[in-house]
Amino acid sequence: MDTPLILLDVDGVLNPLQRSPGYQRYRATPNGITYRLLLNPRHGPLLTGLAEATGAELIWASYWTDTANDWIGPRVGLPILRSVPIPPRDPRYTYGGWKARHVAEWVGERPFVWLEDEPDVSDALAAGPELGPHLIVPVDPQEGLTDLHVEQARDWLEQLR
Ligand SMILES: [Mg+2]
Q1: Cα(64) to centroid of ligand 1, in Å?
Q2: How far apart are CA 107 and CA 92, in angstroms?
Q3: What predicted TM-score, i.e. pTM, was given to this entire model?
Q4: Which domain of life is it from (predicted)?
Q5: What is the spatial distance between Cα 99 and Cα 9, in angstroms, rounded to a whole number?
Q6: Given this model, what pLDDT does residue 23 score?
Q7: Over the chain, what is the mean pLDDT?
C-alpha cells in the first residue's frame, strides 16, 4: 500500500486563535506581509512521533504552502516537509472548498488523515473525485491541535495497517 499521508494545516491547527499555556508569540513575514502567530514547540515532537509510529509522511496542507518550512516548521520543531500545492484562492470558493479541491487532486488514491479546522472540507471532498481511505480530524481553531487529535489520527492510521 502507498505510504499514508498526514496532512497538516497551519492556521487554526498549529496556530490557534487563542493563547493557551505552552504557546509562544512570533511574527512571520512571508512575501513581506506580517502575520502574528501563536506556536507550540510541543507540536513538532508530537507529530513526528505520530509519523514515526505509523509509517506515515507529514505534509503541509496549508495556504502557507512551502513557506511553512521557513516560518512554522523550525519554530515548532518540524523538519522540512513536502507541501500540497495550493494556489491563491479563487473567490468563488470558500477557503475550505478551494483547499479541498487541490488536496483531492494532489493525494489521488493515497490514504490520508487530515488535521484541519475549516468545517466544510468534508463536504467539499465528498463532492469531488473518488479518493482512497481518508479521515478528517476536525480541529477547533480557537484551541488548535491537542493530544486528542493526534490520538485520533494514530488510531485510524494503525487500523489502516
Ligand atoms: Mg486553517
Answers
A1: 10
A2: 23
A3: 0.96
A4: Bacteria
A5: 10
A6: 98
A7: 97
Q: What is the CA radius of gyration of the chain?
A: 15
For residue 47, the domain's CATH number is 3.40.50
Cell of 31: 512575501
Tell how far the Cα of 160 is from the centroid of ligand 1, in angstroms: 26
17 is in which domain, residue-wise? 5-160
- Strand (E) or helix (H) holding 26: strand 24-28
Distance 35 CA to ligand 1 centre (A): 14
What pLDDT, on the 0 to 100 scale, is given for residue 84?
98
Distance 12 CA to ligand 1 centre (A): 5
Asked whether the predicted pLDDT for residue 1 surpasses 80, the reply is no
Compute the distance from residue 2 Cα to the ligand 1 centre, in Å: 26
Report the pLDDT value the prediction gives residue 124, as an integer from 0 to 100. Answer: 95
Report CA(132)–ligand 1 centroid distance (Å). 23
Residue type, 8: L
Neighbours of ion ligand 1 (CB under 5 A): 9, 11-12, 117
Number of domains in the chain: 1
pLDDT tens readout for residues 70-124: 999 999 999 999 999 999 999 999 999 999 999 999 999 999 999 999 999 999 9
In single-letter form, the type of residue at position 112 comes to: F
